[in-house]
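Please check this record.
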Amino acid sequence: MDTICITCRIINKEVIPPGGIIYKNNFVILHHCLDINIGGYFILSPVRHVEGLEQLEPEELSQIANLSKAIIEVLIKQKDIDRVYILSLGEETSHFHFHLFPRYKWMLDFPSEDICTNDKIDGGKLFSFIRNKYKVDKQELFDNRLLEILNSVREWADL
C-alpha cells in the first residue's frame, strides 16, 4: 500500500475532509472533495486499497454502483444541478476512486473555448477547467451551498 495515500489517510481519520466522512461501511467511503469549492463534488472509493476497477471484489463493485446511483439521485434533485459526471482518473492518488462531479447550470456560462470542443460541451474539459478555477485551501471550503448539499446527502443516508 502507498504510505502517503490520501484516501487511506482519510479512512484512518488522519485527514478530515470538508464536512467529515459522509458515508462509510466495510466496503466504501464517500466524502467531499478535499480542495475544490463546488458543493456536492464527492469522492467515492473502496475502503480497501486497490489501484484499479479490475481489482474490486463483487461486493465492493456493487456497493460503489448502488451508492453512486443514490448520490446522483440526491444531487439531481438540487434545483441548479442538471447533470452529474462520474470520472475515474487516478492521477493524484493510486487508491482507486470515482469523482461524482455535479454540473451546475452556471458552469455553462463560461466562455465556450474553456468548456467546449467543436461547439459542444466537453465534460472532460469542463471538469478540468472548473477544478482549476475553484481549487482552494481546505479552510475556504465551508460555504452554505456545500453544507446544504452535505446535509441533503446525510439525510438520504440517515446519518
